[in-house]
Amino acid sequence: MKPLNIPPGPGIPKGLVIPAAELTERFARSGGPGGQGVNTTDSKVQLSVDIAELSVLSDVYRRRALQNLSHRLDGTTLTVSVTTQRSQVRNRAEARRRMADLIREAVQPPPPRRRRTRPSRASIARRKAQKQRRSELKASRRRPSAY
């Protein structure tokens, strides 16, 4: 098995390489339709990694990943299952891509907090004018009065 390469992105300027020894790959028979091929080939791929034990993650990245992926973790283990393709090779590639995407998104720093600002006078005036135009449009659709 090859190591998992996570390309550079926000929060990971140099990217990451997870050693193959820290990854666990399991294969099983996929469920669902597929004819005779389903019963004979182990095309389902489950790729797992223990986030708490990853050597390539700093303490900050590890804490961030454990917090952001908490809904997907079983203990501290992240598992990705892929059965979308008929071929085991394609499912393995897809599982690695999904795992890399999940880890990259999990270690990203949070976005900067929004600074609250007041609306300008012009924007307030535009909003009121738009509300007035909308009110007139709706009033024009009403049934005319009996007077």
UniProtKB/TrEMBL annotation:
Residues 29-45 form the Prokaryotic-type class I peptide chain release factors domain. Transmembrane segments: none annotated. Keywords: Hydrolase. Residues 91-104 have a biased composition (Basic and acidic residues). InterPro entries: Pep_chain_release_fac_I, Pep_chain_release_fac_I_sf. GO terms for biological process: rescue of stalled ribosome. Residues 112-132 have a biased composition (Basic residues). It comes from the Bacteria. Its EC number is 3.1.1.29. Residues 84-147 are annotated as: Disordered. Belongs to the prokaryotic/mitochondrial release factor family. This is Aminoacyl-tRNA hydrolase. It comes from Corynebacterium amycolatum. The gene is arfB.
